[in-house]
UniProtKB/TrEMBL annotation:
Domain Tyr recombinase, residue spans: 155-332
Entry GO MF terms: DNA binding
Signal sequence segment: none
Coiled coil: none
Keyword set, alphabetical order: DNA integration, DNA recombination, DNA-binding
Superkingdom: Bacteria
Similarity remark: Belongs to the 'phage' integrase family.
GO biological process entries: DNA integration; DNA recombination
Protein name: Integrase
Record-annotated Core-binding (CB) domain positions: 49-130
Lineage: Bacteria, Pseudomonadati, Pseudomonadota, Betaproteobacteria, Nitrosomonadales
Keyword Metal-binding: no
Amino acid sequence: MLSIGTYPDVTLKVARKMRDVAADQLQQGVDPSQYRQEQKQLKQLSVENSFEKVAQLWWDNWKTNKTKRHANYTIRRLEADIFPIIGNKPITEITTPTLLMAFKKIESRGALDIAKRALNTCSQVFRYAVGHGLAERNPAADIKPSDVLRPAKSRNYSRLSQKELPELLRRIDEYDGQPLTKLALQLMAITFVRTGELIGAKWDEIEFDMKLWRIPAERMKMRTPHIVPLSTQAIAVLEKIKNLPGSTSLLFPSERGNDRCMSNNTILYALYRMGYRSRMTGHGFRGIASTILHEQGYPHDHIELQLAHSARNEVSAAYNFALYLEPRRQMMQDWADYLDAIKAGAMVLSVKTAR
């Protein structure tokens, strides 16, 4: 016995057709009632395993070793760009063309880098689904960003030429804004760390006796610890920062509250005030240092390690951050001496001659 619905919701014609299907299933050794229950369960499972719900499961697992900022940015991008298009679809029913439609929509507004990241993130969600038995394949694996998205233009950070550097250093010393902002710019020029690494610095990272700044992995772009040898000039700047009133655990606390660090824009707007809008950024100090140090013959490996351009191989990166520490220490002192010399107007031809 098998119930196939009530009349008139199910017409006689439809009932006969359903009866014939059930009879065929019986002949093939399939229990029609059990088959119907299984199909109903599969349908319910598909609804429960929508792309959005699986993506949330993936995100909860993936974010454990990521910074809060990075994790929140990733889920916000999914919520804004992907969930509205495929979020409600069962993950097992999403095809490559459907995915491509979502990425192309992002590309259409000129956000090429975000479209590329979205493809990579979706691929990770599908890999999670396959690994947990929620899907049989990853449709994102069939495409690469270069196959379906326009190539993004390379991003060049604004920076000054070597000839313009002395004037910038003098303007920083003469900066009439907040004293802490001026000291942040001075330390950035001397150490050429990334802006985020600078403004998030904490006093427990600074070893005055060893003249070292140890930045933990969780604050680094490459997720590996970084060592910055501190020149005599860097130590002097740090001492000035320490003597400012209102000291906290942060070197550069925000004016809005001591539990937050200075904003990225503080550095950028200070450069604007000094007349360098569209000509120089905080990142520009890194490019200038790299160019000059390479031109002056310092070993490429030493410079790249000091810039924290470490290889992404976790094993090698774990050991490499402390490599060449002594020659890097000398290089950083040479660099600070060089900056002092050109700021004073000396015709320095080599970083090394500025010692």
